[in-house]
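Protein 1 of 2
SEQ + STRUCT:
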Amino acid sequence: MGTELGGVNRLYEVMKRLRAPGGCPWDREQTFQTLKPCLLEETYELLEAMDGQDLALHVEELGDVLLQVVFQCAIREEEGFFTLDDVAEALAEKLIRRHPHVFGDAVADSSGQVLRNWEAIKQTEKGKKPDRSAIDGVPATLPALLKAQRTQSKAARVGFDWEDATGATGKIAEELEELKEAVAAGDKQKMSDEMGDLLFSVVNYCRFIDVEAESALEGTNKKFSRRFREVERRLRGQGKSLKECTLAEMDAVWDAVKVEERNGRQG
């Protein structure tokens, strides 16, 4: 195997060598089932790298995700089904087919029109079931917030949507009142149902204002954790533990941390 091969082809040849007789025992033992958690873990590591500024880490994590694609293609080639080149070719053809405003005569003046065209083309593609739902294709394993936003987006592409954000905010108010009624009644199942409806409505509003709900909540998770740890650190510096402090004392430190963060961001 020579280094004259292009990067992706060289990678594929390395993978096939690892899987071949006399290759790596661990690589040869892997199956689609054993690779599933690897793909999930590598994807989350890539998402974390995407939030940072470490370019070398970004390259590394992209490579780890690419490895999972190459690994699966190598297994399928061994089975006689398809290769990495087949996957790349199929993807290229799909991109051309679904972008007629770039590679054909269609017109799309906005991202919204592009997505509507994309959805319409999907419905006519060979092999698609005639009874296929417009919201098919959202992975069942997605986190709930992300799944809600993707489902709503797909429904919106076929016109099932509020005209503007006013409808979405009105729905939030409506669902919040219904949740309060369920809480007042002490109906646990109803509370769960209405809380789900409220969260779904908040996600819908996120979509209207072009905010990724999953990313927004994760950002708040990180912000809370950062501030909470700083509160702990400062209280330890005063010789105190959280259990020894009143809520008012903890809130005072929290507010100080929050103000300092905001002033630092403004500066």
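Protein 2 of 2
SEQ + STRUCT:
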Amino acid sequence: MRKTGFVGWALLAALLSGCTTHGPCCTPCCPVAQAAVAPPTPARAPTVEPTKPAPRSALYDGMTGEKADLAQVAYGWGDVDLVAFGEIHGNLIGAEAQLLLLQTLAKHERPLALAMEFFERDTQAALDAYLKGAIDKAAFLKKTKRKKAYAKTHGPLIEFCKAHGIPVIAANAPRRLVTGYRKFDGRYEAYLASLSETDRALLPEETSEPEDAYRKRFLELMGPKRAHFFKAQALWDDAMAEAITDFREENPQHRVLLIVGGFHVRGGEGTITKYLMRRGKHSVRVVVMSPDDIPSLAFREEDRGRGDLVLKYAVKGPE
């Protein structure tokens, strides 16, 4: 009995000794150790707070930097003669804000018109025909050469105007004529004289290239080698300003909402300067878009004075 007991204890000691030579990692191959280790308790899944989406945009008063509500502010612009929305082309955040602005301004008793940089003056007949229901949408899109992005950007504006009887101004000079002037070696009066009567009617009666902050900003963007492009930029500004002026002279009770590239109206320059040269001290308000890749979309010092309202939008976020 003693011999048997000794052998049993020796065997158990050998087994335990062999296990300890491998350290803690030998547990799976050691029956004795396996029997002594309790099964692990399943870990509880951590509680995860739902992620809030980053803000897509934020609107600020362009002078104070305080946050603003577009509909609330715009509703107070009933007596303003011209409201300009300086957009980033193709941006859907801007498109949503434009539609809200149009809908808000249309609530006033004072009539409203929409002016568009993106319709050239030789498309006015097709635009009018579509608004009156004289041609269908397919014919309208073909005659005015609308691109794919139109359906989600400017399309809703035109459809709203069509549904509510709001006139739309094809405000811009045809690109072919502006390019022709840029390449023309001579004064603007001589360029007009070289055109047919039909083409002359599509351009403003006069244009100028003022030595101002707008010109400086243009040259900083384009570089000195493209300084000659400013004559084309100035002609576009004069064309839009004159188109709005002509409309308001015939329809003095109407206010106008101009949808235009932000560069043309930032800081009340460009098209706004040209309009005020023609219309004097008429009241104007400007909304401009300002890109930001910071989630907070904070108002920055460089945003101050860009417009009466500054719409900050996330560059990298969803549109």
